[in-house]
Design a protein that fits this description.
By secondary structure, the protein is an alpha/beta fold. It has a single domain, classed as Alpha-Beta Complex (Protein-Tyrosine Phosphatase, Chain A). The protein is built from 12 helices and 5 strands. Strands 1-2-5-3-4 form a 5-stranded mixed sheet, covered by helices on one side. Helix 7 packs across helix 9. It is globular and about 50 Å long.
Length: 264
């Protein structure tokens, strides 16, 4: 995929920090670079040996961090260090915890993950709506993250991109870029869990099929991602317009009906 080198930002402790810029919408506009990022846990920036990474992060000028993890994950693993002027929001979108390392290897891994995504989409409506509002109305660059930057982060990224009018193939390809970090994510898990067995061979994986299954499920139930956002999240055309104004470069503006809530 074009832009992979620029899309992945180099850190020592962060393995999955990516710029969502550069993607095109159906009406010919482009997501601006340096406006919206997705990442694995920014709690890693608080580690004693992460000073260089923290400096790299500060240089991006991020003004808002959305942490999608459970509060107990943050208590155990830490959060992004506090900085003057940095807005931090903990919006725990997942309400039914599960341990991916212990998933039955006999299960269909991609169907299993897509089903967990569906649970988040139904349980985490208040948090997902709040996250979309922060992205639309935030001041300066914003990053959202979970633990690995894979599932909860991937779900929110898919919703944002779909509402902006990015096509499904691009959304799926962006989701699958986590696969470039899988080996390091697995290594991190092993380092944090010495002596414990990693039962699930798909741990750390993020193939396109997962997000495609999830998007197809939303389409079956709600007609489209936009139908889901409108019906379950209460996302109106005004919010979609604010997302587009904040994130897209100037160009062919298009109507909301072309890429927003009016289209299925």
């Amino acid at each position: 995929m074009a832009g992979v080198t620029r899309r992945h930002l180099d850190f020592d402790r962060l393995h999955n920090f990516r710029d969502l810029g550069g993607y095109s919408t159906r009406d010919g506009r482009t997501l601006g670079w340096g406006r919206l990022y997705r990442s694995d846990s920014l709690g890693k920036l608080a580690a004693p040996d992460a000073a260089a990474d923290l400096d790299r992060f500060r240089a991006l000028g991020v003004r808002t961090v959305i942490d999608l993890r459970y509060p107990w994950e943050i208590e155990a693993k830490g959060r992004v260090p506090e900085e003057a002027g940095l807005v931090y929001a903990n919006l725990s979108v997942e309400h039914r915890p599960y341990d991916q390392a212990s998933i039955d290897p006999a299960l269909d891994p991609w169907r299993y993950l897509a089903d967990r995504f569906a649970e988040v989409a139904e349980d985490g409506t208040a948090e997902l709506r709040a996250a979309l509002g922060l992205i639309a109305d935030g001041d300066g660059p914003l990053v959202f993250h979970c633990a690995s930057g894979k599932d909860r982060t991937g779900l929110l990224a898919a919703l944002v991109l779909a509402l902006l009018g990015v096509d499904e193939d691009t959304i799926a390809a962006d989701f699958a870029l986590t696969e470039l970090a899988t080996e390091r994510l697995v290594a991190d898990w092993r380092a944090a869990n010495p002596g414990r067995e990693l039962r699930w061979p798909a741990y750390g994986r993020a193939p396109e099929e997962v997000i495609r299954l999830f998007l197809a499920d939303l389409a079956t139930t709600y007609g489209s991602v936009r139908g889901y956002a409108r019906t379950r999240l209460g996302v109106d055309e005004d919010l979609v317009g604010r997302l587009r104004k904040r994130l897209l470069d100037d160009g062919a503006a298009g109507s909301v009906g072309e890429t927003g809530l009016s289209a299925n």
